[in-house]
Design goal:
The chain is α/β, with parallel strands linked by helices. It has helices spanning 26-42, 62-67, 83-96, and strands spanning 18-25, 46-52, 71-74.
Length: 97
């Protein structure tokens, strides 16, 4: 029987579970997602947060979140569809997984 734990994969090598938390704009990460991300980190999860670095709803909060010690990835999202840009954003997300 193969057993899994939060710390080991099928090979038995230790690793932490990685969690990717995304938002369209960085202010949502700062206001709503960061407290949950901090909780997950306290529970020994590896947390990466991603959002647009654009000033969609105010100044970007990504530098502030990085200064607080979070792993941050800038992904160019918008609230309106932009097919060519969205393909690039999708590719960046795929590489994170």
């Amino acid at each position: 029987m193969i057993q899994f734990s939060r710390w080991t994969g099928r090979s038995g090598n230790p690793r932490r579970i990685r969690v990717l938390l995304l938002a369209t704009y960085s202010q949502a990460l700062s206001s709503f997602v960061a407290p949950f991300a901090r909780y997950l980190e306290e529970q020994e999860y590896e947390v990466v947060m991603g959002a647009s670095d654009e000033e969609l709803a105010g100044p970007s909060m990504l530098p502030t979140l990085r200064a607080e010690g979070f792993q941050i990835v800038s992904i160019p999202f918008t609230n309106r569809p932009l097919p060519y840009r969205d393909i690039g954003s999708g590719w960046r997300l795929w590489k994170l997984l």
